[in-house]
């Protein structure tokens, strides 16, 4: 089955700096790669996703890149703000129209310091 | 409702007891997913429903775990003979269709087996 590895496990940045979180996956058939943000006591919230036919996607301060050859994808957050502090999870799945079973990474605790 | 609702938010039970965890998905969402999240880990897939039927239950750890969705809306995750290792946050998510990529998570039920 799919295995997703995520690094780093913790990341501390100064407000206004950029943050990068990296993930690798094992199943070359995976074609959908979402990123979730989880705040304490809440469920994960989808912040951005990318499909395998696209190499990069951007939404305001957040961008995701995908390298299918290397089976590697990354989340980039620019101009970080204190409210960006949370745990971020990457995930991968094979979208077939018959359900979307996600395999998650182990998470990155991002702390944005003032 | 506006989001996915899970009840109770917290449940403490004694080892060996039976528990039921409830999920109310977003109205009209046909796909419903259950995940389990242990401390410091990403969510792990348990089961998903298309309408009333369990389309994929490959993530259920053993036959003590069972889930139903009799009317295609509310779902109940049932755990028999609970063990301390079952302690985790149980997350429910729903999406408009089974082929939809992103889905919405509830805040979870924190189960503690003592």
Question: Which keywords apply here?
Answer:
heterodimer; A: mainly beta; six-stranded mixed beta sheet; five-stranded antiparallel beta sheet; globular; B: mainly beta; 11 strands
Please give the structural blueprint:
The complex is a heterodimer of chains A (114) and B (114).
Chain A lengths: L3 E4 L2 E5 L4 E7 L6 E7 L6 E7 L4 E4 L2 E6 L4 E6 L8 E7 L10 E2 L3 E6 L1
Parallel strand pairs in A: 2-11
Antiparallel strand pairs in A: 1-3, 3-8, 4-5, 4-9, 6-7, 7-8, 9-10, 9-11
Chain B lengths: L4 E3 L2 E4 L5 E6 L6 E7 L6 E7 L2 E4 L8 E4 L6 E5 L8 E8 L8 E2 L3 E5 L1
Parallel strand pairs in B: 2-11
Antiparallel strand pairs in B: 1-3, 3-8, 4-5, 4-9, 5-6, 7-8, 9-10, 9-11
Rounded radius of gyration of chain A (Å): 14 Å
Poorly predicted regions of chain B are: none
Rg calculated over all Cα atoms of chain B:
13 Å
Number of strands of chain A: 11
Largest sheet of chain A: 6 strands, mixed
What pair of chains forms the biggest interface? A-B, 28 and 29 residues
**What is the count of DSSP helices of chain A, taking H or I runs of 4+ residues?**
0
How confident is the prediction overall: mean pLDDT of chain A? Answer: 95
Strand content of chain A: over 45%
Secondary structure tally, helices of chain B: 0
Oligomer: heterodimer
First-residue to last-residue Cα separation of chain B: 33 Å
Order of helices and strands of chain B: EEEEEEEEEEE
- Derived structural class of chain A: mainly beta
């Amino acid at each position: 089955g799919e295995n997703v590895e995520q690094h780093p496990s913790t990341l501390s940045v100064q407000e206004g700096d950029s943050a990068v979180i990296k993930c690798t996956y094992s199943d070359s058939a995976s074609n959908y790669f979402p990123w979730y943000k989880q705040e304490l006591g809440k469920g994960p919230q989808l912040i951005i996703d990318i499909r395998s036919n696209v190499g990069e996607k951007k939404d305001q301060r957040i961008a995701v890149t995908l390298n299918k050859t290397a089976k590697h994808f990354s989340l980039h957050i620019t101009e970080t703000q204190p409210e960006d502090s949370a745990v971020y999870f990457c995930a991968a799945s094979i979208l077939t129209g018959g359900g979307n079973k996600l395999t998650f990474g182990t998470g990155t605790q991002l702390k944005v310091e003032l | 409702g506006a989001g996915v609702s899970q009840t109770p938010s917290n449940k403490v039970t004694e080892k060996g007891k039976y528990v039921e965890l409830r999920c109310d998905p977003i109205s009209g969402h046909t796909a419903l997913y259950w995940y389990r999240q242990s401390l410091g880990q990403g969510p792990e897939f348990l089961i998903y429903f298309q309408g009333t039927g369990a389309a994929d239950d490959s993530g259920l750890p053993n036959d003590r775990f069972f889930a139903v969705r009799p009317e295609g809306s509310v779902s109940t995750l049932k755990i028999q003979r609970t063990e301390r290792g079952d302690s985790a946050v149980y997350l429910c998510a729903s999406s408009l269709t089974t082929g939809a990529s992103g889905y919405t998570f509830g805040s979870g039920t924190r189960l503690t087996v003592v």
